[in-house]
């Protein structure tokens, strides 16, 4: 075995270098987030929502969420977005059914299920933010070829310092934060 | 004395090459010329054969896409993974018969395209979750093991080529998931590919080494440039590119020499544009760059000759 390593030092170094790098960064990431409490506040988010001036829109006023369709004159061919609530205690995202709106004349409807409990502050009461996980730094030719599409891995997560908490159903480049559900 | 065994034949060739100062390139060139002469009249059936195979492959792909919506989940998996598996098994069978051994490479190529497709279809149809990167890690990891384990039994270059490609795909994803930053991932993986290609270069699998030299060196230099671009350390790229030039001589690789030369030329363009553009010195800088380009190209040609000489004497 010793003879093999001596004879094939370059090959062994080449094979083990990326594995060693992965191990070092994995341990460093784990150590940096040790002691961080998991999130407790539920978050409401949407996917397939592009925050345009026309078409479907979400508004939060006095803690109440309204879903609307405006400027129909512009004849927007926009797909209906989806609304989710992520509950950390169940570690699951549940879809909230959105009402059908009049896309000819324009209309709006209040989302009853969330009541008046939505807080739109950037940070949750337990110190988390909802954001896209661009954690891998800039992409380059190697990450594009061999990184499994990390550039497009812009799923949304709950972040607190270096700690990231994956949010199910938020693995979508169009996911947007609506607010914290503070029942 | 006529040689009776393979060893004796090699001894004779070695003696003759020393006596008449023949290098590997001279012998290789003659063998290729003879082979080309012998096969000159067989080119038409070969081209028609390849064309036929391409038509069959395209027809299969077209048929699958036309019938896709009518197929249920098992049928979708079988129609994509099945031909890939059959091609892989047939590839192994051809390795056991000297008459069909040349058919193994196209069969392994076909299986390398269809096996991952079938595995992704399987995960799409049956697995839960939305993590496509994890799916890619599983698929490429399993295929790397499959091709490299087969290579251990049947040491064919095509198996090593695809096995190493799948290995890099799975390791790259693993590094990304371990939160290795993009630049460090590129540098680490680039160095790894180059080191492994260097090892391949010393074996009978050396025909695939230039491809991996190219892939590794482009990835490495690109990542180094990304890491230092726009920082005071950007001059460090110069050291990396020049270092790569020297390494090309050490590795006897003209692929590395070409990549490092072009990267150096590109860097000089970036550097003059970054620090001398819109100043009175810009025209002077352009002229200086022109002289530097001429000097570098002269140096590259000189190094290329040294590499060729080293390859002949190897």
UniProtKB/TrEMBL annotation, chain A:
This is Uncharacterized protein. It comes from Micavibrio aeruginosavorus.
From TrEMBL, chain B:
InterPro entries: DUF2157. Keywords: Membrane, Transmembrane, Transmembrane helix. Residues 27-152 form the DUF2157 domain. It holds the Pfam family DUF2157. The chain crosses the membrane at residues 47-66, 78-95, 107-127, 133-151, 158-175, 181-200, 207-225, 231-249, 256-273, 279-301. This is DUF2157 domain-containing protein. The lineage of its organism: Bacteria, Pseudomonadati, Bdellovibrionota, Bdellovibrionia, Bdellovibrionales.
